[in-house]
Design the sequence.
């Protein structure tokens, strides 16, 4: 079968790899109809992780079940399903507590597993024609038959729940003001989720015009940090107080105010601390890693950033971090899509055949030609 294979930094290729088969009675094999390129994939693509050549990318996957193991009880051939990016067992201490992003079973020695991602277990990615899904009764979310809402449902694998998770970590409530740093796919989903949760005012901070335009289209207030201090811009709109809640949807590859200065890993963390009013709360679904070989300084290479913990404490801010436990949210978000209450596909900029993956990675990485979210169709 065809799959997107990592070759070296800034290079992927669509190659022939072995088609997956049933290895356990609770496995299913899914014929992938849609798979998305995630901003998290770019960390590996750029060589900013320990990813080895040969890994098949893709943790945002959906499709039609082609084959089921003998132990599968709730699914059948022909079912349309979407899978959380978290691979989870459903029965360990963390899974039963709802922390499926930190499963203790699927990646021995580490809390958490995912498809097609470095250090997240042996699970091949789904930017391919087929993908094997373990613990399928637990990991597959059934969808209505047909192809309606295809580009909405694919976002249930990761970015829609992750954006919502950022708001959950921050405790966003009706009537509150929210500042979201990052207008990439997760940031836009966080802003959208804040609105779904009843936020009165949502700010989105970025410097890419096309992304800020997307934020404006959904009713958010765009804040271009290239045009002035984002903290001051947010305070101007909130009577000098700052927002009630904040979401960091950027992570460790944050950029300094000036493009010439390059990366400043703690830039967003420190800005968001100043952008949120005293006794507010922060949600941080943006990725931070304990090891970054491409970091701009030695401390950052080991995940140690110069964060203004003194201001965090002084302001009495609460803080929640960590990757999304997708199963906490995906069923409810699916039903909101079905009933017309949510349409997250506004973030999708390009739908392409799998054969164009290499070009799509290059353009998405460079933030050019309006690339905000790419969905690949392996059988197109």
Sequence:
């Amino acid at each position: 079968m065809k799959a997107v294979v990592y070759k070296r930094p800034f290079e992927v290729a669509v190659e022939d790899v072995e088609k997956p088969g049933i290895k356990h009675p609770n496995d299913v094999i899914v014929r992938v109809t849609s798979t998305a390129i995630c901003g998290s994939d770019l960390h590996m693509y750029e060589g900013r992780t320990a990813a080895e050549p040969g890994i098949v990318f893709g943790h945002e996957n959906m499709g039609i079940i082609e084959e089921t193991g003998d132990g599968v009880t709730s699914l059948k051939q022909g079912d349309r399903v979407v899978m959380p990016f978290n691979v989870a067992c459903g029965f360990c201490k963390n899974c039963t507590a709802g922390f499926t992003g930190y499963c203790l079973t699927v990646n021995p020695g580490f809390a958490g597993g995912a498809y097609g991602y470095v250090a997240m277990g042996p699970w091949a990615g789904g930017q391919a024609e087929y993908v094997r899904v373990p613990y399928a009764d637990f990991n597959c979310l059934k969808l209505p038959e047909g192809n309606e809402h295809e580009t909405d449902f694919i976002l249930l694998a990761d970015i829609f729940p992750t954006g919502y998770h950022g708001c959950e970590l921050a405790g966003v409530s009706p009537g509150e003001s929210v500042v979201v740093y990052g207008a990439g796919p997760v940031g836009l989903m966080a802003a959208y989720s804040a609105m779904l949760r009843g936020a009165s005012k949502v700010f989105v901070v970025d410097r890419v015009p096309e992304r800020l335009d997307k934020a404006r289209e959904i009713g958010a207030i765009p804040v271009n940090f290239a045009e002035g201090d984002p903290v001051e811009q947010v305070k101007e709109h909130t009577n000098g107080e700052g927002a009630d809640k904040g979401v960091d949807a950027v992570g460790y590859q944050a950029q300094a105010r000036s493009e010439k200065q390059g990366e400043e890993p703690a830039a967003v963390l420190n800005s968001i601390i100043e952008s949120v009013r005293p006794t507010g709360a922060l949600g941080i679904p943006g990725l931070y890693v304990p090891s970054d070989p491409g970091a701009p300084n030695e401390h950052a290479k080991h995940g140690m950033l110069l964060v203004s913990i003194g201001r965090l404490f002084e302001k009495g801010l609460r803080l929640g971090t960590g990757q999304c436990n997708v199963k906490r949210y995906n069923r409810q978000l699916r039903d909101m899509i079905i009933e017309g209450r949510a349409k997250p596909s506004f973030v999708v900029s390009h739908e392409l055949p799998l054969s164009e993956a290499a070009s799509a990675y290059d353009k998405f990485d460079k933030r050019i030609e309006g690339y905000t979210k790419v969905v690949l169709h392996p059988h197109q």
